[in-house]
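Chapter summary example.
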Amino acid sequence: MQLQNEESALNNAQQQQAYNQSLLAQYRSAAAEGTASIGGSASLTAINNQLNTLQSKLEAMNSRYTPRYPAVIALKQEIAKTQQARRELIAKLNAAG
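The structure predicted for these 97 residues follows.
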């Protein structure tokens, strides 16, 4: 039963990772295309919302799992990628305007 729960959590984390990677690609594409003037603030809001969601999930997972649990590690990596995308978008917004 515990193995099933762990496999399920890992599967959920992997699905979330795939979703976040697609969002990250979209954010980077939008920033590279120079859509910062109109869509930049909306993109930044979306990144902030995603980051908040990921951090909430991490808090919940930290209460149940150890820091070395694979799904926790994957989620921390996604948070780091999302934070990097946010920094890149902010830099683009600042450069554009």
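To summarize the output: The two ends are 54 Å apart (CA to CA).
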